[in-house]
Amino acid sequence: MAQVQNSMTNLQSELVKMFRYELSANELMEIKNLLASYFQTKIDRSVDTLWADNGWTNDTMLQILNEHPTR
Question: How far is CA 36 from the centre of its chain?
C-alpha cells in the first residue's frame, strides 16, 4: 500500500496540535491578528536589512519607480 504524504506544513501541523478545541470567532480573529503581526514584523526587519545593506533611501525608491513606470 502506498504511503500517504502529509500535505500540511510544519506550522499547520503544530497549530492543529495546539488548537484541538473549538475557538470563538473573537479568539480566532485574535490569533489571526497575532500571526499576521508576527509575519509583518519579520518582513519589516528583512526589508530594513535589505535597505541598510544596499544603502537605499527614499530617493532610491523614487528613481526605481521612475525607471519602471506602471502600465
Answer: 7
